[in-house]
Amino acid sequence: MFSRIVATGSSVPELEVGNDELAGLVDTSDEWIVTRTGMSRRHIATTDTTSSLAAAAARKALDAAGLSADDIDLIMVATVTPDNFTPTVSCQVQAALGNTAATCLDLWAGCSGFVYSLRVADSMIRAGGVHRALIIGAETLSRVVDWTDRNTCVLFGDGAGAVVLEASDEPGVLACVTRSDGSRGNVLRIPGLANSNPWAIKAASDADAIAPPPSVISMDGQEVFRFAVGAIQWSLEESARIAGIDISSIYRIIPHQANNRIIDAVASRMGIERDVFYTNLQRFGNTSAASIPLALDELNRAESIPVGAYLALVGFGGGLTWGGSVIRWAQTA
Ligand code: ACO
User: Fold this and answer.
1) 43 has catalytic annotation
2) N or C: which end of the chain has fewer CB within 10 A?
3) Atom from ligand 1 closest to the CA of residue 291
């Protein structure tokens, strides 16, 4: 028993924000952002939420597969920006789709969330408990960005991507590898809620000590850069090794869309043609857990990926977390 991707979908908010518009918010410029990141614009949510984008991407994937909502028995959403702590985004998607058959599960693994989710869903399908899964990466990072911080606010965008993964006799997902290093968690943070119960307040010697930290992204950009290059290389090499293929036979690598310079550095270090790496960060920015399925859907719709072609998906992000997958492309609907 194997699993394979049979359809893709994606959704982004209507509003596009260009670099020049950000230069009106913080001390930056189009030239700086393009040179340092490769990004020109990104989509920003106004009325959309993480769950509405996730549901829209899921509907498109279901439509592409010619499936109805109740054909799905697992809904997984990778996100770090859920609408609520509960209900989960996956449960909200279930309700929006009118699905009654699925187990719903959110997964937090930063920008690696989609690759982690693929590994979990693939394992559940192989174990025989699940026949068909919707795996979605969805984010509204614009809610956790500090719009006065030029170091971070130029990097992120909102959106969602989805795939339908189903049980198959033919191999589709050939390898999934994941790693984590919690000791380096502070490199990239979005704080959670502070404990402000009366006893915690009493126990605190300084009331400021328990003031809720602002829930905004902070990161050590250069440290993330260094980490990312090694993480992508390991994920590619390890997933290709387990899949039993040579990296040179990969048709396209879809990396997490964090920064063009990270991808340039990996390509040159590993001697891989830059064009093998598919990027759309120029138009979408970094959409964290959504970036890989968003790029995969765009690639799938823009060109006909040859059946049997090898694709590699590679994620890295907060936690720290990283991982990769090699898939053999199936006929998509
Ligand atoms: N506009 C203008 N100047 C800026 C901006 C900006 N938007 N942001 C930072 N600067 C300034 C800094 O203040 C600094 O000024 P100083 O020298 O006067 O102190 C200068 O530019 C250089 O700053 P660096 O941090 O050294 O710039 P660097 O070349 O490293 O680029 C960047 C920063 C783009 C964040 C880079 O480190 C990077 O891409 N790191 C990877 C981080 C990443 O991709 N994060 C995404 C989230 S994590 C994830 O998805 C896994």
Assistant:
1) no
2) N
3) 50
